[in-house]
Amino acid sequence: MVECSVMNQLSLLDLLDRPPIEALYKPDQIYESDDPSLFARLTEDARFDRKAGNTDARVFAKYLSAFGNGPSVDGGVLAIGVENDGTLSGCKHLSQDQLSGAESMGHTFCPDGRFVTRRLHIKNKKGEDDFIVLARINYVDDKVVQLTDGTAYERLGQDCRKLTEEKKQEKRIDKGERSFEQEPCGLIYPDDFDMSKISRFSTLLRKNVDSTQDHTTEQILQSAHLARTKGGVLVCNNACALLFARDVQTVFPGAYVHFLRYDGNEAKSGKEYNVIKDRLISGTVIDVIKDTASLIDNNLREFTEFREGKFLTVPEYPRDAWYEMLVNAVVHRSYHIKSAPIFVRMFDNRLEIESPGGFMPQITAENIVGTHRPRNLFLMLALREYGEVRCISEGTRRMVAEMENASLPPPEFKQERMGSLSVLCTLRNNVADRSNSLDSEAYMRLGQAIAFGLTPEERKIVNFVMQHGRMNVSDALRIMKTTRWHTAKRTMDGLVDRGALDRHGTGKARDPHSYYSLHQGVGRESEWLCASSSANWRSWCWSCGFA
Predict the structure, then answer these.
(1) Please, what is the Cα angle at 234 between 222 and 205, to 5 degrees?
(2) pLDDT tens-place string over residues 164-214
(3) By three-state DSSP, how is residue 54 classified?
(4) How many Cβ atoms sit within 10 Å of the Cβ of residue 322?
(5) Helix (H), strand (E) counts: the chain
(6) pLDDT at 421
(7) Residue 302 CA from chain centroid, whole number
(8) What does each C-alpha distance from 288 to 127, 250, 256, 292, 345 come to in angstroms?
(9) What DSSP state is assigned to residue 143?
(10) Higher-confidence residue: 355 or 395?
Protein backbone atom coordinates (compact mmCIF):
# COMPACT_ATOMS: atom_id res chain seq x y z
CA MET A 1 0.00 0.00 0.00
CA VAL A 2 2.83 2.36 0.88
CA GLU A 3 4.53 1.63 -2.44
CA CYS A 4 1.26 2.27 -4.31
CA SER A 5 0.78 5.56 -2.43
CA VAL A 6 4.30 6.70 -3.35
CA MET A 7 3.67 5.85 -6.99
CA ASN A 8 0.41 7.82 -6.98
CA GLN A 9 2.18 10.76 -5.37
CA LEU A 10 4.92 10.68 -8.01
CA SER A 11 2.29 10.54 -10.75
CA LEU A 12 0.53 13.57 -9.26
CA LEU A 13 3.80 15.51 -9.07
CA ASP A 14 4.47 14.48 -12.65
CA LEU A 15 1.14 15.93 -13.72
CA LEU A 16 1.72 19.15 -11.80
CA ASP A 17 5.09 19.61 -13.48
CA ARG A 18 3.64 18.88 -16.91
CA PRO A 19 2.40 22.05 -18.67
CA PRO A 20 -1.29 22.02 -19.61
CA ILE A 21 -1.89 21.25 -23.25
CA GLU A 22 -3.25 24.79 -23.75
CA ALA A 23 0.27 26.09 -23.15
CA LEU A 24 1.28 24.29 -26.35
CA TYR A 25 -1.54 25.64 -28.54
CA LYS A 26 -0.49 27.37 -31.74
CA PRO A 27 -2.14 30.73 -32.57
CA ASP A 28 -4.37 29.07 -35.19
CA GLN A 29 -5.66 26.60 -32.58
CA ILE A 30 -6.41 29.46 -30.18
CA TYR A 31 -8.18 31.51 -32.86
CA GLU A 32 -10.32 28.59 -34.04
CA SER A 33 -11.42 27.53 -30.55
CA ASP A 34 -15.13 27.91 -29.71
CA ASP A 35 -14.54 27.60 -25.96
CA PRO A 36 -15.05 31.09 -24.43
CA SER A 37 -13.44 30.05 -21.13
CA LEU A 38 -10.17 29.37 -22.98
CA PHE A 39 -9.69 33.10 -23.54
CA ALA A 40 -10.21 33.75 -19.84
CA ARG A 41 -7.76 31.02 -18.81
CA LEU A 42 -4.90 31.55 -21.23
CA THR A 43 -1.78 33.31 -20.02
CA GLU A 44 -0.74 36.35 -22.00
CA ASP A 45 2.46 35.48 -23.83
CA ALA A 46 4.20 35.66 -27.20
CA ARG A 47 1.15 34.18 -29.01
CA PHE A 48 -1.84 35.62 -27.11
CA ASP A 49 -3.16 38.81 -25.49
CA ARG A 50 -6.54 40.23 -24.48
CA LYS A 51 -8.04 43.69 -24.26
CA ALA A 52 -11.30 45.27 -23.11
CA GLY A 53 -13.72 46.11 -25.90
CA ASN A 54 -13.58 49.87 -25.36
CA THR A 55 -9.81 50.00 -25.89
CA ASP A 56 -8.64 52.76 -28.23
CA ALA A 57 -8.13 51.59 -31.82
CA ARG A 58 -4.53 52.87 -31.78
CA VAL A 59 -3.74 50.21 -29.15
CA PHE A 60 -5.09 47.48 -31.43
CA ALA A 61 -2.84 48.84 -34.19
CA LYS A 62 0.15 48.37 -31.90
CA TYR A 63 -0.63 44.63 -31.76
CA LEU A 64 -0.74 44.48 -35.56
CA SER A 65 2.83 45.78 -35.53
CA ALA A 66 4.11 43.66 -32.63
CA PHE A 67 2.76 40.29 -33.80
CA GLY A 68 3.58 41.24 -37.39
CA ASN A 69 7.24 41.82 -36.54
CA GLY A 70 7.84 38.76 -34.35
CA PRO A 71 10.41 37.51 -33.50
CA SER A 72 8.01 34.54 -33.56
CA VAL A 73 6.93 33.82 -37.14
CA ASP A 74 3.65 32.31 -35.91
CA GLY A 75 2.01 35.68 -35.25
CA GLY A 76 -0.60 35.82 -32.50
CA VAL A 77 -4.20 36.21 -31.34
CA LEU A 78 -5.86 39.18 -29.65
CA ALA A 79 -9.13 38.56 -27.78
CA ILE A 80 -11.19 41.79 -27.62
CA GLY A 81 -13.89 42.00 -24.97
CA VAL A 82 -11.86 40.18 -22.29
CA GLU A 83 -10.52 42.08 -19.27
CA ASN A 84 -6.95 41.76 -18.01
CA ASP A 85 -8.10 39.44 -15.21
CA GLY A 86 -9.87 37.15 -17.69
CA THR A 87 -13.39 38.47 -17.08
CA LEU A 88 -15.58 38.15 -20.18
CA SER A 89 -17.01 41.67 -20.48
CA GLY A 90 -18.04 41.28 -24.13
CA CYS A 91 -18.48 43.78 -26.95
CA LYS A 92 -22.26 44.17 -27.40
CA HIS A 93 -22.24 47.36 -25.31
CA LEU A 94 -19.82 49.10 -27.72
CA SER A 95 -20.95 51.88 -30.02
CA GLN A 96 -20.87 51.19 -33.75
CA ASP A 97 -17.68 53.24 -34.10
CA GLN A 98 -15.99 51.39 -31.24
CA LEU A 99 -16.98 48.00 -32.64
CA SER A 100 -15.79 49.03 -36.09
CA GLY A 101 -12.45 50.11 -34.58
CA ALA A 102 -12.12 46.75 -32.83
CA GLU A 103 -12.98 44.62 -35.85
CA SER A 104 -10.72 46.67 -38.13
CA MET A 105 -7.95 46.41 -35.50
CA GLY A 106 -7.12 50.08 -35.95
CA HIS A 107 -5.94 49.21 -39.45
CA THR A 108 -5.96 52.85 -40.51
CA PHE A 109 -3.16 53.43 -37.98
CA CYS A 110 -1.19 50.36 -39.19
CA PRO A 111 -1.96 49.74 -42.87
CA ASP A 112 0.78 47.06 -43.25
CA GLY A 113 -0.76 44.80 -40.60
CA ARG A 114 -2.26 41.51 -41.78
CA PHE A 115 -5.16 39.96 -39.87
CA VAL A 116 -8.63 38.39 -39.90
CA THR A 117 -11.34 38.66 -37.23
CA ARG A 118 -14.41 36.73 -36.14
CA ARG A 119 -17.05 36.99 -33.44
CA LEU A 120 -17.47 34.30 -30.78
CA HIS A 121 -20.72 33.97 -28.78
CA ILE A 122 -20.26 34.11 -24.99
CA LYS A 123 -22.14 34.66 -21.76
CA ASN A 124 -20.76 37.84 -20.28
CA LYS A 125 -20.04 38.48 -16.60
CA LYS A 126 -23.73 39.37 -16.05
CA GLY A 127 -24.86 36.07 -17.58
CA GLU A 128 -26.18 37.82 -20.70
CA ASP A 129 -25.74 36.72 -24.31
CA ASP A 130 -22.78 38.60 -25.75
CA PHE A 131 -19.80 38.16 -28.03
CA ILE A 132 -16.07 38.79 -28.12
CA VAL A 133 -13.96 39.65 -31.16
CA LEU A 134 -11.03 37.40 -31.96
CA ALA A 135 -8.27 38.76 -34.19
CA ARG A 136 -5.77 36.41 -35.82
CA ILE A 137 -2.72 38.58 -36.55
CA ASN A 138 -0.17 37.19 -39.00
CA TYR A 139 3.59 37.60 -39.05
CA VAL A 140 4.73 39.73 -42.02
CA ASP A 141 7.90 38.27 -43.51
CA ASP A 142 8.73 40.86 -46.17
CA LYS A 143 8.67 44.21 -44.33
CA VAL A 144 8.74 45.90 -40.95
CA VAL A 145 5.16 46.61 -39.83
CA GLN A 146 4.98 50.23 -38.69
CA LEU A 147 2.24 52.51 -37.46
CA THR A 148 1.45 55.62 -39.50
CA ASP A 149 3.48 57.72 -37.06
CA GLY A 150 6.62 55.66 -37.84
CA THR A 151 6.72 53.66 -34.60
CA ALA A 152 7.04 49.88 -34.69
CA TYR A 153 6.87 47.12 -32.09
CA GLU A 154 7.87 43.49 -31.55
CA ARG A 155 6.23 40.86 -29.36
CA LEU A 156 8.53 39.68 -26.54
CA GLY A 157 6.76 37.46 -24.03
CA GLN A 158 3.64 39.31 -22.90
CA ASP A 159 4.96 42.74 -23.89
CA CYS A 160 4.75 44.82 -27.06
CA ARG A 161 8.17 46.43 -27.04
CA LYS A 162 8.87 49.53 -29.11
CA LEU A 163 11.65 49.09 -31.66
CA THR A 164 14.56 51.49 -31.81
CA GLU A 165 15.61 52.79 -35.21
CA GLU A 166 18.57 50.41 -35.13
CA LYS A 167 16.31 47.42 -34.40
CA LYS A 168 13.96 48.46 -37.20
CA GLN A 169 16.85 48.57 -39.65
CA GLU A 170 18.04 45.16 -38.48
CA LYS A 171 14.58 43.68 -38.99
CA ARG A 172 14.36 45.25 -42.47
CA ILE A 173 17.61 43.49 -43.35
CA ASP A 174 16.46 40.15 -41.93
CA LYS A 175 13.13 40.38 -43.77
CA GLY A 176 14.83 41.29 -47.05
CA GLU A 177 13.20 44.71 -47.17
CA ARG A 178 16.62 46.29 -47.15
CA SER A 179 19.88 44.81 -48.47
CA PHE A 180 22.49 46.01 -46.00
CA GLU A 181 25.38 44.33 -47.77
CA GLN A 182 24.47 46.23 -50.97
CA GLU A 183 24.69 49.64 -49.34
CA PRO A 184 27.78 51.82 -50.10
CA CYS A 185 30.54 51.22 -47.55
CA GLY A 186 32.01 54.74 -47.75
CA LEU A 187 35.52 53.56 -48.69
CA ILE A 188 37.34 54.90 -51.73
CA TYR A 189 38.28 52.52 -54.54
CA PRO A 190 41.08 51.58 -55.09
CA ASP A 191 42.92 53.45 -52.29
CA ASP A 192 41.14 51.79 -49.34
CA PHE A 193 41.19 48.26 -50.75
CA ASP A 194 43.76 45.47 -50.89
CA MET A 195 44.13 45.18 -54.65
CA SER A 196 46.10 41.94 -54.42
CA LYS A 197 43.08 40.26 -52.81
CA ILE A 198 40.73 41.73 -55.39
CA SER A 199 43.06 40.52 -58.14
CA ARG A 200 43.05 37.00 -56.68
CA PHE A 201 39.27 37.01 -56.48
CA SER A 202 39.02 38.17 -60.09
CA THR A 203 41.35 35.35 -61.17
CA LEU A 204 39.29 32.79 -59.26
CA LEU A 205 36.05 34.06 -60.77
CA ARG A 206 37.45 34.02 -64.30
CA LYS A 207 38.66 30.46 -63.75
CA ASN A 208 35.45 29.22 -62.13
CA VAL A 209 33.22 30.82 -64.78
CA ASP A 210 35.56 29.69 -67.56
CA SER A 211 34.67 32.69 -69.69
CA THR A 212 36.48 33.50 -72.93
CA GLN A 213 35.71 37.22 -72.54
CA ASP A 214 38.35 39.48 -71.04
CA HIS A 215 36.49 41.29 -68.24
CA THR A 216 38.19 44.02 -66.24
CA THR A 217 38.52 43.77 -62.47
CA GLU A 218 35.93 46.52 -62.04
CA GLN A 219 33.46 44.69 -64.27
CA ILE A 220 33.95 41.51 -62.26
CA LEU A 221 33.25 43.34 -58.99
CA GLN A 222 30.04 44.70 -60.47
CA SER A 223 28.96 41.32 -61.85
CA ALA A 224 29.49 39.82 -58.38
CA HIS A 225 27.23 42.55 -56.89
CA LEU A 226 30.13 43.96 -54.88
CA ALA A 227 30.18 47.39 -56.50
CA ARG A 228 28.39 49.64 -58.99
CA THR A 229 29.35 52.62 -61.10
CA LYS A 230 27.93 56.01 -60.18
CA GLY A 231 28.94 59.12 -62.11
CA GLY A 232 31.89 57.28 -63.63
CA VAL A 233 33.20 56.26 -60.19
CA LEU A 234 33.22 52.69 -58.82
CA VAL A 235 31.28 52.65 -55.56
CA CYS A 236 31.98 49.57 -53.42
CA ASN A 237 29.37 48.18 -51.03
CA ASN A 238 29.53 46.67 -47.54
CA ALA A 239 30.05 43.13 -48.84
CA CYS A 240 33.05 44.32 -50.84
CA ALA A 241 34.51 46.03 -47.76
CA LEU A 242 34.17 42.83 -45.71
CA LEU A 243 36.02 40.89 -48.41
CA PHE A 244 38.75 43.28 -49.54
CA ALA A 245 39.12 46.42 -47.38
CA ARG A 246 42.61 47.22 -46.10
CA ASP A 247 41.10 48.00 -42.69
CA VAL A 248 37.68 46.36 -42.33
CA GLN A 249 37.19 47.73 -38.83
CA THR A 250 36.98 51.32 -40.05
CA VAL A 251 33.56 50.31 -41.41
CA PHE A 252 32.71 47.42 -39.05
CA PRO A 253 34.41 47.84 -35.65
CA GLY A 254 33.04 44.47 -34.49
CA ALA A 255 34.18 42.50 -37.54
CA TYR A 256 36.54 40.30 -35.53
CA VAL A 257 36.54 37.07 -33.55
CA HIS A 258 37.19 37.08 -29.81
CA PHE A 259 38.73 33.70 -28.94
CA LEU A 260 38.65 32.58 -25.29
CA ARG A 261 40.11 29.32 -23.95
CA TYR A 262 38.84 28.43 -20.46
CA ASP A 263 40.30 26.09 -17.88
CA GLY A 264 37.35 23.92 -16.91
CA ASN A 265 33.72 23.65 -18.00
CA GLU A 266 32.39 27.05 -16.87
CA ALA A 267 33.34 30.70 -17.31
CA LYS A 268 34.35 32.24 -13.98
CA SER A 269 35.22 35.77 -12.90
CA GLY A 270 37.00 37.69 -10.16
CA LYS A 271 39.56 35.68 -8.21
CA GLU A 272 38.40 32.52 -10.02
CA TYR A 273 38.88 34.02 -13.51
CA ASN A 274 39.83 31.01 -15.60
CA VAL A 275 40.64 32.29 -19.10
CA ILE A 276 43.99 30.82 -20.11
CA LYS A 277 44.09 32.17 -23.67
CA ASP A 278 42.54 35.39 -24.97
CA ARG A 279 43.01 36.42 -28.61
CA LEU A 280 41.41 38.88 -31.06
CA ILE A 281 41.38 37.93 -34.76
CA SER A 282 40.54 40.66 -37.27
CA GLY A 283 40.88 41.35 -40.97
CA THR A 284 38.79 40.49 -44.02
CA VAL A 285 36.30 37.65 -43.68
CA ILE A 286 38.73 35.28 -45.42
CA ASP A 287 41.54 36.29 -43.02
CA VAL A 288 39.27 35.88 -40.00
CA ILE A 289 38.12 32.42 -41.07
CA LYS A 290 41.66 31.25 -41.84
CA ASP A 291 43.34 32.67 -38.71
CA THR A 292 40.56 31.61 -36.33
CA ALA A 293 40.57 28.10 -37.79
CA SER A 294 44.32 27.89 -37.19
CA LEU A 295 43.88 29.06 -33.59
CA ILE A 296 41.10 26.55 -32.91
CA ASP A 297 43.14 23.78 -34.53
CA ASN A 298 46.16 24.51 -32.32
CA ASN A 299 44.04 24.41 -29.16
CA LEU A 300 42.09 21.24 -29.85
CA ARG A 301 43.18 18.01 -28.24
CA GLU A 302 43.78 14.74 -30.02
CA PHE A 303 43.19 11.28 -28.59
CA THR A 304 44.91 8.04 -29.41
CA GLU A 305 42.49 5.10 -29.36
CA PHE A 306 43.42 1.47 -29.11
CA ARG A 307 41.43 -0.45 -31.73
CA GLU A 308 42.01 -3.99 -32.91
CA GLY A 309 45.58 -4.05 -31.63
CA LYS A 310 46.51 -0.63 -33.09
CA PHE A 311 46.69 2.93 -31.77
CA LEU A 312 44.69 5.37 -33.93
CA THR A 313 44.62 9.15 -33.49
CA VAL A 314 41.21 10.89 -33.48
CA PRO A 315 40.47 14.61 -32.98
CA GLU A 316 38.49 16.07 -30.08
CA TYR A 317 35.90 17.28 -32.63
CA PRO A 318 35.66 16.47 -36.36
CA ARG A 319 37.28 19.26 -38.33
CA ASP A 320 34.43 19.55 -40.84
CA ALA A 321 31.96 20.10 -37.99
CA TRP A 322 33.75 22.92 -36.19
CA TYR A 323 35.03 24.53 -39.40
CA GLU A 324 31.50 24.67 -40.82
CA MET A 325 30.30 26.16 -37.54
CA LEU A 326 32.97 28.88 -37.80
CA VAL A 327 32.25 29.68 -41.45
CA ASN A 328 28.50 29.92 -40.76
CA ALA A 329 29.13 32.35 -37.91
CA VAL A 330 31.33 34.63 -40.05
CA VAL A 331 29.19 34.51 -43.20
CA HIS A 332 25.69 34.64 -41.72
CA ARG A 333 26.15 36.98 -38.76
CA SER A 334 24.39 40.36 -38.71
CA TYR A 335 26.99 42.92 -39.79
CA HIS A 336 24.40 45.62 -39.24
CA ILE A 337 25.27 45.20 -35.54
CA LYS A 338 28.58 46.85 -36.32
CA SER A 339 30.28 46.84 -32.91
CA ALA A 340 29.53 43.26 -31.77
CA PRO A 341 32.17 40.57 -32.42
CA ILE A 342 31.86 36.83 -32.86
CA PHE A 343 32.85 34.88 -29.73
CA VAL A 344 34.63 31.53 -29.87
CA ARG A 345 34.70 29.94 -26.42
CA MET A 346 36.58 26.72 -25.83
CA PHE A 347 35.87 24.79 -22.62
CA ASP A 348 37.13 21.38 -21.55
CA ASN A 349 33.83 19.75 -22.47
CA ARG A 350 32.52 21.90 -25.36
CA LEU A 351 33.24 24.41 -28.11
CA GLU A 352 30.88 27.39 -28.49
CA ILE A 353 30.60 29.97 -31.27
CA GLU A 354 28.25 32.91 -30.76
CA SER A 355 27.47 35.28 -33.63
CA PRO A 356 25.54 38.60 -33.57
CA GLY A 357 21.99 38.59 -34.89
CA GLY A 358 19.14 36.19 -34.22
CA PHE A 359 17.75 33.46 -36.46
CA MET A 360 16.48 34.65 -39.81
CA PRO A 361 12.68 34.82 -40.13
CA GLN A 362 11.08 31.36 -40.25
CA ILE A 363 14.30 29.76 -38.97
CA THR A 364 14.24 28.13 -35.54
CA ALA A 365 16.55 25.92 -33.49
CA GLU A 366 14.34 23.00 -34.51
CA ASN A 367 14.42 23.49 -38.31
CA ILE A 368 17.81 25.15 -38.85
CA VAL A 369 19.49 21.90 -39.95
CA GLY A 370 19.09 21.72 -43.72
CA THR A 371 17.24 25.05 -43.99
CA HIS A 372 18.81 27.65 -46.25
CA ARG A 373 18.02 31.36 -45.79
CA PRO A 374 21.23 33.40 -45.95
CA ARG A 375 21.43 36.84 -44.34
CA ASN A 376 24.34 38.00 -46.54
CA LEU A 377 23.65 36.45 -49.94
CA PHE A 378 26.32 38.23 -52.02
CA LEU A 379 28.99 37.78 -49.37
CA MET A 380 28.14 34.08 -49.34
CA LEU A 381 28.27 33.85 -53.14
CA ALA A 382 31.69 35.51 -53.18
CA LEU A 383 33.03 33.10 -50.57
CA ARG A 384 31.72 30.26 -52.70
CA GLU A 385 34.40 31.17 -55.24
CA TYR A 386 37.00 30.52 -52.53
CA GLY A 387 35.44 27.13 -51.77
CA GLU A 388 34.41 28.21 -48.25
CA VAL A 389 30.66 27.71 -48.72
CA ARG A 390 28.61 25.55 -51.09
CA CYS A 391 25.28 27.43 -51.01
CA ILE A 392 23.22 24.23 -51.09
CA SER A 393 22.01 24.15 -47.46
CA GLU A 394 24.04 21.04 -46.64
CA GLY A 395 26.53 22.65 -44.22
CA THR A 396 24.45 22.06 -41.09
CA ARG A 397 23.60 18.55 -42.30
CA ARG A 398 27.31 17.85 -42.70
CA MET A 399 27.93 19.08 -39.14
CA VAL A 400 25.33 16.66 -37.81
CA ALA A 401 26.69 13.77 -39.87
CA GLU A 402 30.31 14.40 -38.84
CA MET A 403 29.42 14.55 -35.14
CA GLU A 404 27.35 11.37 -35.46
CA ASN A 405 30.20 9.54 -37.25
CA ALA A 406 32.50 10.55 -34.37
CA SER A 407 29.96 9.18 -31.84
CA LEU A 408 29.47 12.68 -30.43
CA PRO A 409 26.24 14.55 -29.59
CA PRO A 410 24.66 16.54 -32.45
CA PRO A 411 25.35 20.29 -32.72
CA GLU A 412 23.13 22.49 -30.56
CA PHE A 413 21.63 25.75 -31.88
CA LYS A 414 20.09 28.36 -29.62
CA GLN A 415 18.95 31.97 -29.94
CA GLU A 416 20.28 34.10 -27.10
CA ARG A 417 19.18 37.56 -25.94
CA MET A 418 21.86 39.48 -24.07
CA GLY A 419 20.99 43.02 -25.08
CA SER A 420 20.97 42.16 -28.80
CA LEU A 421 19.97 38.83 -30.28
CA SER A 422 22.66 36.29 -31.12
CA VAL A 423 22.88 32.68 -32.25
CA LEU A 424 24.88 30.24 -30.13
CA CYS A 425 26.11 26.98 -31.66
CA THR A 426 27.68 24.36 -29.41
CA LEU A 427 29.67 21.18 -30.07
CA ARG A 428 30.15 18.84 -27.12
CA ASN A 429 32.95 16.32 -26.75
CA ASN A 430 32.99 13.07 -24.80
CA VAL A 431 36.20 13.56 -22.83
CA ALA A 432 34.48 12.47 -19.61
CA ASP A 433 33.34 9.20 -21.22
CA ARG A 434 36.51 8.23 -23.04
CA SER A 435 37.69 4.91 -21.68
CA ASN A 436 39.53 3.48 -24.66
CA SER A 437 41.43 6.64 -25.54
CA LEU A 438 44.50 8.49 -24.39
CA ASP A 439 45.21 12.14 -24.91
CA SER A 440 47.69 12.02 -27.81
CA GLU A 441 50.14 14.21 -25.91
CA ALA A 442 50.04 11.76 -23.02
CA TYR A 443 50.51 8.88 -25.45
CA MET A 444 53.67 10.48 -26.84
CA ARG A 445 54.92 11.29 -23.35
CA LEU A 446 54.37 7.79 -21.95
CA GLY A 447 55.39 5.85 -25.03
CA GLN A 448 53.61 2.90 -26.59
CA ALA A 449 54.93 0.33 -24.13
CA ILE A 450 53.22 1.94 -21.13
CA ALA A 451 50.17 3.14 -23.07
CA PHE A 452 49.52 -0.37 -24.41
CA GLY A 453 49.14 -1.78 -20.92
CA LEU A 454 46.68 0.76 -19.49
CA THR A 455 43.18 -0.36 -18.55
CA PRO A 456 40.15 1.77 -19.60
CA GLU A 457 39.94 3.34 -16.12
CA GLU A 458 43.68 4.02 -16.09
CA ARG A 459 43.34 5.81 -19.44
CA LYS A 460 40.61 8.01 -17.96
CA ILE A 461 42.92 8.88 -15.06
CA VAL A 462 45.81 9.77 -17.38
CA ASN A 463 43.46 11.90 -19.54
CA PHE A 464 42.27 13.77 -16.45
CA VAL A 465 45.85 14.45 -15.35
CA MET A 466 46.77 15.57 -18.87
CA GLN A 467 43.81 17.92 -18.98
CA HIS A 468 44.13 19.43 -15.49
CA GLY A 469 47.85 19.05 -14.77
CA ARG A 470 47.32 17.20 -11.49
CA MET A 471 44.91 14.86 -9.74
CA ASN A 472 44.22 13.57 -6.24
CA VAL A 473 42.43 10.44 -5.07
CA SER A 474 39.14 12.30 -4.61
CA ASP A 475 39.30 13.35 -8.27
CA ALA A 476 39.88 9.73 -9.27
CA LEU A 477 36.81 8.59 -7.32
CA ARG A 478 34.62 10.92 -9.38
CA ILE A 479 35.58 9.32 -12.71
CA MET A 480 36.13 5.69 -11.67
CA LYS A 481 33.47 3.04 -11.17
CA THR A 482 34.65 2.27 -7.64
CA THR A 483 33.49 4.20 -4.60
CA ARG A 484 36.31 2.89 -2.38
CA TRP A 485 39.05 5.42 -1.61
CA HIS A 486 41.73 2.74 -1.10
CA THR A 487 40.92 1.09 -4.46
CA ALA A 488 41.33 4.40 -6.27
CA LYS A 489 44.60 5.15 -4.47
CA ARG A 490 45.91 1.68 -5.23
CA THR A 491 45.14 2.23 -8.94
CA MET A 492 47.01 5.54 -8.99
CA ASP A 493 49.98 4.16 -7.06
CA GLY A 494 50.10 1.35 -9.60
CA LEU A 495 50.45 3.97 -12.35
CA VAL A 496 53.33 5.50 -10.35
CA ASP A 497 55.06 2.11 -10.13
CA ARG A 498 54.74 1.66 -13.91
CA GLY A 499 56.18 5.09 -14.71
CA ALA A 500 52.96 6.74 -15.90
CA LEU A 501 52.44 9.13 -12.96
CA ASP A 502 54.56 10.91 -10.35
CA ARG A 503 53.33 11.15 -6.75
CA HIS A 504 53.81 14.39 -4.76
CA GLY A 505 53.36 14.73 -1.01
CA THR A 506 54.58 13.39 2.31
CA GLY A 507 53.68 9.79 1.57
CA LYS A 508 51.49 9.59 4.66
CA ALA A 509 48.09 7.93 4.37
CA ARG A 510 45.29 10.42 3.67
CA ASP A 511 47.72 13.30 3.14
CA PRO A 512 45.30 16.12 2.11
CA HIS A 513 48.05 17.87 0.11
CA SER A 514 49.22 14.89 -1.93
CA TYR A 515 48.54 14.76 -5.67
CA TYR A 516 49.68 13.01 -8.84
CA SER A 517 51.03 14.43 -12.12
CA LEU A 518 52.11 12.92 -15.43
CA HIS A 519 55.51 11.27 -15.17
CA GLN A 520 58.41 13.61 -16.02
CA GLY A 521 60.97 10.86 -16.51
CA VAL A 522 63.59 9.87 -19.07
CA GLY A 523 63.08 9.52 -22.78
CA ARG A 524 61.70 13.01 -23.28
CA GLU A 525 64.29 13.95 -25.90
CA SER A 526 63.34 11.11 -28.24
CA GLU A 527 59.65 11.78 -27.62
CA TRP A 528 60.24 15.47 -28.46
CA LEU A 529 61.66 14.47 -31.85
CA CYS A 530 58.61 12.31 -32.50
CA ALA A 531 56.18 14.93 -31.29
CA SER A 532 57.73 17.75 -33.32
CA SER A 533 56.75 15.99 -36.52
CA SER A 534 53.10 15.65 -35.54
CA ALA A 535 50.32 18.13 -36.28
CA ASN A 536 49.94 18.79 -32.57
CA TRP A 537 53.59 19.45 -31.76
CA ARG A 538 53.17 23.09 -30.68
CA SER A 539 50.67 22.33 -27.95
CA TRP A 540 52.78 19.29 -26.91
CA CYS A 541 55.85 21.51 -26.58
CA TRP A 542 53.87 24.00 -24.51
CA SER A 543 52.59 21.35 -22.11
CA CYS A 544 56.06 19.87 -21.72
CA GLY A 545 57.74 23.22 -21.18
CA PHE A 546 59.97 23.22 -24.27
CA ALA A 547 58.65 26.33 -26.02
Answers:
(1) 30
(2) 988 888 888 888 777 888 899 999 999 999 999 999 999 888 887 765 567
(3) coil
(4) 26
(5) 20, 19
(6) 82
(7) 24
(8) 68, 16, 7, 6, 16
(9) S
(10) 355
